[in-house]
Amino acid sequence: MSPCRALACVAALVAVCCAPGSVESLDITRLYGHHNLNKRSEYCHPYEPFKCPVDGNCISIQYLCDGAPDCIDGYDEDSKLCTAAKRPPVEETASFLQSLIASHGPNYLEKLFGSKARDALEPLGGVEKVAIALSESQTIEDFGAALHLMRSDLEHLRSVFMAVENGDLGMLKSLGIKDNELGDVKFFLEKLVNTGFLD
């Protein structure tokens, strides 16, 4: 199709879509691949809820982690963001960790994360930081590096995850997890395993 003919088609579409009394409208910039030019606003539309932090462009969730950067700095393809998109929300993870601490005491998570997990995870930066690291770390190695875990603590944590992956609930019971909590703990750890945490 010649450029003149293409422009005539676009003009016809605009005339049809934008005629007085017409409900629909056409964003011409989308036809030319400049769909981000008019998307800067304080709030994003529900159909394009993800706001790029640097340029303020709003994009659809389907464009997150699709291999093609839509944010000017490529943030929508950031490996931490893409990993977090597959994991439980940070708030859910933080709430889960907090509930274990509330049920078992401030040093309980030492059984999972090692001696740095004393005092409600304070030496690791607190519950929120650990929840973020669990959400954003692609692998258990990345998680250990993010929180500066000792190698022995990381290997212990790996053995807990491997036990869960193999269906060995005895390992979780040996950590003092109550029978009424086993299902929730197993479910939570399996979510991480299923997103490649042990790879």
Keywords:
199 residues, mainly alpha, two-stranded antiparallel ribbon, 11 helices, 53% helix
Give a summary of the structure in a few sentences.
This protein has about 200 residues and is mostly helical. The protein has 11 helices and 2 strands; from the N terminus they run H-H-E-E-H-H-H-H-H-H-H-H-H.
Average pLDDT rating: 80
| Shape estimate | elongated
First CA to last CA: what distance?
Answer: 50 Å
Uncertain segments? 1-40
SSE sequence, one letter per element: HHEEHHHHHHHHH
Sheet having the most strands = 2 strands, antiparallel
**Total helix count?**
11
Rg from Cα: 24 Å
Structural summary, described in words:
With 199 residues, this protein is mainly alpha-helical. Helices cover 53% and strands 2% of the residues. It contains eleven helices and two strands. The protein has helices at residues 3-17, 28-31, 79-86, 90-104, 110-113, 118-121, 127-136, 140-147, 151-165, 169-174, 179-194; strands at 50-51, 58-59. The protein has a two-stranded antiparallel sheet. α4 packs across α7 and α7 packs antiparallel against α8 (140-147). Residues 1-40 have low confidence and may be disordered.
